Amino acid sequence: MLLILTSLFACGHSDRVNILIENQSGFAIDSLSVHPNTAGLMVELQPGDSVVYTADLSRQVADGAYSIIYRNVQNGKVYRDTFGYFTNGMALEREIRYRIVPPE
Question: In which domain of life is the source organism classified (predicted)?
Answer without folding.
Answer: Bacteria
